[in-house]
Design brief:
Layout lengths: L12 H18 L2 H34 L3 H13 L2 H7 L8 H29 L8 H34 L5 H29 L7 H25 L2 H8 L3 H28 L1 H13 L6 H6 L4 H7 E4 L4 E3 L8 E6 L2 E7 L2 E8 L4 E2 L1 H6 L6 E4 L3 E6 L1 H10 L1 H26 L1
Antiparallel strand pairs: 1-8, 2-7, 3-6, 3-8, 4-5, 4-7
């Protein structure tokens, strides 16, 4: 059974959600996911067109079977009533008589559009979850030819079962109560199938995969959002209106708009999943840059102003005189001085030499991480201090995530090395 991810403490929940929403919206705009959604919707439309052609073939075959089969007759009637086949045929979505040559072209279009659709989704996920590694060439060619037919087959089976049960219920073949119960179970099955598909996409498509538990929850949110979108789309957007406005192209515009909003939601929740995993990194970046005087906008200052969650997760408090870092130690933890004052000292032949002082808002101890060497100096608390202790993996993510912070850390490191060299020169003189 899936468990929800651990949430921040209640007093910081609103602040954390605000940071998550802001980070998601900022990254969504920076990555241009609106354009990715539009491209994916276009390939989806290309895929849907030949599928309508295949549906025409299926209806022709079903019409021949219905002449001698009662179940086929019921299925035929259900399809025509629930899918409004006559209306779709009148709008030009389904050809009345599909020709073999056209069917061949349609299948070629389906193969091409399948690869384009899968590549469009993979390209969007590569932007959302940045990674420079390359996918297997074999998989990149085989996957598009497998996933889309399987996807539409499962969706078709679910839709077929749904409309058949609805038709039987309306005509009182199996009893209204039983039919609606089965229809409700089928709707839950369809919801679960869509959730499983989104979960597989959120979990398996990123090269650096998020936790399965996180992917499962965000897939659930995305599925519920898509279900709500379909309900609202059916209530406020009518195919007849688009057909009256755009003429023969009305159906195409209708499908494009629906697909665009659906993929927009798909990518929005994927971006939120990435932001969820980077929530601490983004908050730490804003805190460190502010500590170096590189303040953000007033709105960002408000959004990331609450540091309670960071203090609870990474914060440590020590009394005056405590040796936080010992010269020669092998640990690689970096620290951010949140409150208080500390001294940097180094042992020399003449005794302990004070190199300088650390004030609030300074990052220190990162030299051992960057150089992968023992500690070059000691850090002793001058007053009661509160620090954020950052393990090497957090520093690695910070360096990869933020170019401004990386430049600031390297600049600080260079200045520190220069001061140490000057101190050594003075001692030698």
């Amino acid at each position: 059974m899936l468990r929800p991810p651990a949430l921040p403490p209640p007093r910081g929940t609103f602040s954390w959600l605000l940071q998550l929403g802001y980070t998601t919206a900022r990254l969504f705009g920076q990555n241009g996911l609106q354009n990715h959604a539009a491209a994916t919707a276009f390939y989806f439309l290309l895929s849907a067109t030949p599928l309508m052609l295949l549906l025409s073939y299926a209806l022709q075959l079903l019409g021949q079977l219905a002449e001698n089969s009662v179940p086929a007759t019921i299925l035929m009637a259900a399809l025509y009533e629930q899918l409004r086949i006559e209306t779709l045929t009148g709008y030009g979505f389904i050809p009345r008589r599909a020709q073999l040559a056209a069917g061949g072209v349609g299948l070629l279009t389906l193969v091409y559009s399948s690869r384009g659709l899968v590549n469009a989704v993979q390209g969007a996920f590569k932007v959302i979850f940045p990674d420079h590694s390359k996918r297997s060439l074999v998989l990149s060619w085989i996957l598009p030819f497998v996933i889309l037919p399987v996807l539409f087959l499962l969706m078709g089976m679910g839709a077929l079962l749904q409309i058949t049960l609805l038709f039987l219920a309306q005509n009182d073949f199996i009893g209204t109560g039983n039919a609606y119960l089965l229809q409700g179970l089928n709707a839950l099955f369809g919801f679960a199938m869509l959730w499983a598909l989104l979960f597989a996409a959120y979990w398996r498509l990123p090269r650096r995969r998020p936790r399965a538990r996180d992917a499962a929850w965000f897939a659930l949110f995305a599925t519920a959002s898509l279900a709500l979108l379909f309900v609202l789309f059916g209530a406020f957007f009518k195919l007849e209106n688009y057909n009256n406005l755009y003429g023969a192209l009305g159906g195409v515009v209708f499908v494009l708009i629906g697909g665009y909003f659906a993929f927009l939601l798909l990518y929005l929740w994927a971006q939120a999943l990435y932001a969820w995993g980077k929530a601490d990194i983004t908050a730490l970046e804003k805190l460190f840059l502010a500590g170096h005087g590189e303040g953000a906008s007033k709105f960002e200052g408000y959004v990331f102003g609450d540091t309670g969650r960071l203090l609870e997760k990474y914060g440590q408090t020590y009394p005056s005189g405590h040796v936080l870092i010992t010269e020669g130690a092998e640990d690689r933890t970096a620290y951010f001085l949140y409150a208080g004052r500390a001294a940097v000292t180094k042992h020399t032949d003449t005794g302990e030499h004070r190199l300088g002082e650390l004030a609030e808002g300074q990052l220190f101890g990162e030299m051992a991480y960057l150089l992968n060497e023992p500690r070059t100096a000691s850090v002793i608390a001058d007053t009661d201090i509160t620090v954020l202790a950052l393990p090497p993996q957090i520093m690695e993510e910070l360096m990869q995530h933020s170019a401004p912070l990386s430049r600031r850390i390297i600049d600080t490191l260079c200045q520190r090395l220069e001061r140490m060299n000057l101190a050594k020169s003075g001692q030698a003189a």
